[in-house]
Each structure stands twice: as C-alpha cells, then as structure tokens.
Amino acid sequence: MTILILEDEPLVAKNLEKLIHQLLPEAVLEGPLVSVEAALNRLRKHPVPDLIMADIQLADGVSFDIFQELKLSCPIIFTTAYDEYAIRAFKVNSIDYLLKPIDKAELSCAFEKFKRWQNTPDKEVFSLQLRDLLHDLEHKAVKQYKRRFTAHFQRAVVAVPDTRVAYFVREEVIWLVTTENQRLITDYQSLDELEELLDPAQFIRANRQYIVRKEALESYRTHYSGKIELSLSVSVKEGIIISKDKAAHFRVWFEL
C-alpha cells in the first residue's frame, strides 16, 4: 500500500509519518511534497498511489487545484487547520477530513473508512459515505487549542495556564515567560510546533524568535521603516520587532 503525503509544514509532516507508521506499518510513504507544482509533477510521471494524505493549504496554493486538474480516482484524506474548506473537500474523492493537530484515534478511524472503501465492490456506495462524512463534520467539535503548558522550574515540572503566559522565546531552547516575569524551560522543539497548538486569537508569531500573548501587550510603535516594535507588560531582553510585511496583519489582530 502506497500513501502519498502532501504537507508543507516539516514538523506536521514528521508527526503524520510517525502516526502512519504506528497505524499502518506496512504502508510505503512517499513525500512529503510541499507544493501544488511538486504534486502535479509527481502524479503525472508516476503511478497513482493507493491513498493521498493532503494538507489543503500548500506552499503555492490549495491542493484542490491538483485534483481538479488531474481528475484522480484514488481516495484522499484531507488535513487542515481551517474548517472553511470542508464542503470543497467532499466534492472530490475524500475519505475523511481531519483538523490539525492530527489526532491518532481520528486518523485510525479515517484509515478504517479507507479499508471499507477498498473492500466495497460497488463504488457507488462512496457517495453515501461522503454524505455520512459531511453529517459527521457538522457535529465535530470546534478545534481545541492548548490551555496548559508544562515547563521546568528548578527540579520540578510545573503546569502554566495560558492566561499566565506573556510570551515564548527561542534562545537555544524554547522558554516560557510568565506574566510574573518568571522564565521557564519547555520541552518544545520549535516555535513552529508551538504555533500549531496556540489560539491565534490570543497569540501571535511576532518573528522567528518570539510568540506573544495579546494580554501581555501594552502598546506598540511604528518605525519610519514600517516595522513595528512591541511594548510588553513584562521585561524583554531586546526589542520585539514585527516586520513591515506583517505589520498590517498585526494591527488588525491587535484591535480585535
């Protein structure tokens, strides 16, 4: 069994590969491919895989464009952080639709649906399965973001609620700085990993080094260059700068 992975986030792809190996150790994995262009090139030149695991938002567009252009018959399991793509997902050969971060139990259920589809002589049943999946989607819970973070303080492991987080900073390791100005070491490997877990209404990725919580922001000022410098309610070793390209997005987020 061959599974092609379309995913432009390295950490997400790595985690997905790990889950697939655990659930389907016999599967041969291809990819991850990070763009629509790369996926089109692969699918035009090589045999169609048994199953495609496709992130909807890729580096250069949405994966729907791939399937609309090539009219593939193989089934697809879509993954995404955005529920808004659901209806479009079911207009192609979708077995399931999983919201990130991918849950192992939900992925296992998706694979079970795929196996049932494989063993169905009458593929017309597939349309009925899609109807059931759409019904299930309407009753799925809203994505839950992480509300407590474990960190190390001296020789103890402590749990910090998100309301006590001022910001995260990458300085060789990922530090959590609380609203009381306490610096704690976390076990997270990167800010990319953290960003997947955080509520985007409450946290913003300021730059490659900082993720900041909205309630910790006191003010900001705009430089003549168009960049933005943040002022926090807790101390920071250096100024936190938002690039000119992200400035407009930040202003909208800050006002909400």
Largest beta-sheet details: 5 strands, parallel
Please, what is the CATH homologous superfamily of the largest domain?
Response regulator
How large is the count of helical segments?
Answer: 8
| SSE-based structural type | alpha/beta
CATH class of the largest domain: Alpha Beta
Q: Over the alpha carbons, how many angstroms does the gyration radius reach?
A: 21 Å
**CATH fold label of the largest domain:** Rossmann fold
Count of all domains: 2
What average pLDDT do the residues reach?
A: 82
Q: Which second-level CATH architecture of the largest domain applies?
A: 3-Layer(aba) Sandwich
Low-confidence stretches: none
Q: What is the N-to-C succession of helices and strands? A: EHEHEEEHEHEHHEEEEEHEEEEEH
Number of strands: 17
Strand content: 25-35%
Q: What separation lies between the terminal Cα atoms?
A: 47 Å
Strand line-up of the largest beta sheet: 2-1-3-6-7
How helical, in percent, are the residues?
A: 25-40%
**Broad shape:** globular
